[in-house]
């Protein structure tokens, strides 16, 4: 179902009028995790001021250590929506556990993110395949493009065709940065599938200084959009502080993207 052989033309996923996969580049920005009402209000203002049309924010966080901040849970979901709705920004947030799906539906989350660590959580994929909500499907840390597309197929097989693929860097031997951004995979995914492909340069590089150039490279490689971490005060972020852009850096990046793509 997700193959170009079955559908030659590009799929465009529309989220309250924000179209991902069409001629316009879309940038989803916001903090790694939802922290406080103030942090979320400043984040929403920064996302809007930069000209981005969607907001991200994690309420359920897949942390490597069980002693790290795990996210605010349902309270975080509510803080995210309370900040984003008045700003007119649809939200993207991660679903880790199938038992939270009803809560996500009741809160009318606009886009459900399936994180890299859950790319092959087949029961989770089947459940989001049964609903009628857009899904951002991140590529697993060590998964091939064909495994990634097969994970998308699980969602499509259930009837949900609103799928956005997201390349976020893979595990390699290199330790100088967090992950290796695989732009070749973006090209292959776009060639083999009709689904939109976005890139998350934040989790790929893992350092804020790398994000703007990786973002521009992704657009030059044909990505349909970006998922970027931004925090009103990056060094104070509770999660992924090293890779968060400030609101001013996000605005500057958006200006530079306008020069290389037909951006917002
Ligand atoms: C995230 O987007 O906050 C995240 C945890 O990403 P990934 O699943 O790509 O590590
Ligand atoms: Mn993060």
Automatic annotation (TrEMBL):
GO molecular function: aldehyde-lyase activity; transferase activity
Top-level taxon of origin: Bacteria
GO BP term, pick one: aromatic amino acid family biosynthetic process
Alphabetized UniProt keyword annotations: Transferase
Residues annotated as domain DAHP synthetase I/KDSA: 13-253
Name this polypeptide is given: 3-deoxy-7-phosphoheptulonate synthase
Protein's organism: Microvirgula aerodenitrificans
Lineage of source species: Bacteria, Pseudomonadati, Pseudomonadota, Betaproteobacteria, Neisseriales
Parent-protein residues present: 71 to 334 of 338
